[in-house]
Each structure stands twice: as C-alpha cells, then as structure tokens.
Write a structure and sequence with these properties.
Layout lengths: L1 E4 L17 H8 L3 E4 L1 H4 L9 E4 L3 H5 L4 E4 L6 H17 L4 E4 L10 E3 L7 E3 L3 H8 L4 E3 L8
Length: about 150
Amino acid sequence: MIIVSSCLAGLACRYNGTDSLSEKIKLLVQEGKAVMVCPELLGGFVTPREPAEIIGGTGEDVLEGNASVIEKSGGDVTALYLDGAQKTLELARKYAATTIVLKEYSPSCGSGMIYDGSFGNRRLEGTGVTTALLRREGFEVISELELGERF
C-alpha cells in the first residue's frame, strides 16, 4: 500500500486551508492503491492554522531533541509534530506501506527540502519530522516531486 499526504490527494488540510492537489495521487487514492494521511491533523492541529517551521535544524534534530517546531508567532508546537509523526508511523506499519509520498517543504512531510525557520520563504536541505521518523524506521519516503512515472 502507498501512503500519501492528504493535501496531495485534494483535501484542503494545509496550514492555510488549501490543498496541493496532484491528479496522479488523487487517482491512486480513488483506485484504492493509496491511503491518505495528514501528520499535522493526526497531531491535533486544525485547518487553518498558523504556519510553523523547524528552528535550529531539521526533522532529525527535532527527533533528537536538538531543534523545535515553532509557529510564526513564537508558540512551540514540537510536541504536536512529534505526536503526528508517531501516529503516521503507526499507520505506515498498519498498512505495511511500500512507499510514502509526502508534501515537500513541510515541517512534517518534507523529504529533501524544508523551510529554514526564518519565515522568509527560504529553504534548506533536510527532512520534516514525520519523514525523519519514517526513514529512521526503514520506510521509503519520497516527495510529490519525485513521483514521476513510478506509479
């Protein structure tokens, strides 16, 4: 089974109440080949919500306790991101996920690039919290940008 970010399948669950629809991913869900997941909603967030970025590192650093996920106004939401990552991991295990396709640049889902924590629309190499945990547990995580002709 493939697990995909809900926003990529057309669910308006991004922080700003929008989606990031990929017709290919939507079709995979409609065909029963993929299951949708939103780590941030699983962690307890609602839509819309304040934007957040990882401060002081990447998702790996958050898992190690050396970085935090902070809202633009300064609120620390690290615990919610960690909870959502853990619940996503449980779903990946439940569905025996072969591939997980998550939204690039997200502080939860980024698999190659995330925002740098400045809230200035600048990116850096790194992973989001959920991707870091899933990869640590041996799951293949790619972004919608890497989907290509794989499915």
